[in-house]
Amino acid sequence: MVLILVSLFGLIALVGCATWESTKGVEALWRQPEHQQWNAGKTTTADVINALGPPSQIIALDDQNVFYYMQEKNTGKAYIFILWNKSEQAVYYDRAVFFFDKRGVLLKYAYSKQASGNESK
Amino acid sequence: MKVSKSACAGFILFTVCLITLAGCASINKHYDRPIELSETNLSNEQTHYYVILDELGPPAYISSLANGFAFQYETLQIDELQFGLSSDVDLLRWFKLSFGRAKLDRKVYTFVFNKTGYLQAYGEKQIKDDAGKGISYQFIVKVAQVVDTQYLEKVSPQHNWGFALLQPLPIALNREQSMDSGADGLEQRGTPNSIGQRTLEMHGER
């Protein structure tokens, strides 16, 4: 009987689970309500950079410049039951892009899709 | 027939040990949220990039091209299923021999725009493919991938853009041709380093 209990306890002791989460990139300030007031034709590069900070990447197109902001969230969980083990990892990106003309005036911006859909103007 | 207590215990212990000889594991990885283009009236020279941004949001990659620019959207799902075998021998019982097979589900959209921002060409591809298989010998309570899918899980270039010139010399010197800069083309995740501009970075030589 003791042997059985010890065996079962040993099996149970080997069962485990884990979760992890990490964030990379810039702070997603564009999700804050006070930073949602962008107007095409009015907002400038200075307005965006003052509000959101340095972008993850700046891309020079022919006659436009793009400010690309990105935050990466990596979440995962794992279950270990010896007989059946499972590990799940999801990497999601929250992005904001701003297209400016040669004068540095906003032409178009877009945010990543959230539960309620894309936000772009 | 009378069964002794010790025989009963031995039988149960044997069964438990037998069950622990085999096991399986499932490893799933998702990169980016699923994308679906519902706008079906895309037409070259008429659809503006604003429509694509409204529909799909910011692309994973943007690049300047010789006569315009391009967007690329990409989602990836890697599913690996493993079957593991262990032994009841004293020391070996803490290890398992795992056989794994990985499947890949990838969706890519590429849009090419002209200088004025109107669509020049676009393509969509959903690939469900075998990502490979492998065998490993590992600790029994560890859930580790057997199939190497690291080449598909590269870090987004936006994270490294700021210190591009601090990369090893062959990469830094060829920054002008790099596909991570946003100025010289796009590539899908998992594209081998032995083709195109990447050959200049001498990955095989380092």
Helix content of chain B: 10-25%
Rg of chain B to the nearest angstrom?
25 Å
Chain pair sharing the greatest interface: A-B, 47 and 50 residues
Main β-sheet of chain B: number of strands, strand sense, barrel status?
A: 5 strands, antiparallel
Q: Compute the number of helices of chain A.
A: 2
Q: For this entry, what is the oligomeric state of its chains?
A: heterodimer
Mean pLDDT of chain B: 82
Mean pLDDT of chain A, nearest integer? 86
Written account of the structure:
The complex is a heterodimer of chains A (121) and B (206). Helices cover 17% and strands 50% of the residues of chain A. Chain A is of the alpha+beta class and 121 residues long. In chain A, strands 1, 2, 3, 4, 5 and 6 form a six-stranded antiparallel β-sheet that branches. The relative contact order of chain A is 0.21. Chain B folds into two domains: 19-147, no CATH class; 154-206, no CATH class. Chain B has four helices and five strands. Chain B has helices spanning 5-19, 49-56, 157-160, 169-173, and strands at residues 22-31, 61-65, 68-86, 95-114, 119-139. In chain B, strands 1, 2, 3, 4 and 5 form a five-stranded antiparallel β-sheet that branches. In chain B, strand 3 and strand 4 (95-114) form a beta hairpin. The model of chain B has no long low-confidence stretch (mean pLDDT 82). Chains A and B meet through helix 1, strand 1, strand 2, strand 3 and strand 4 of A and helix 1, strand 1, helix 2, strand 2 and strand 3 of B.
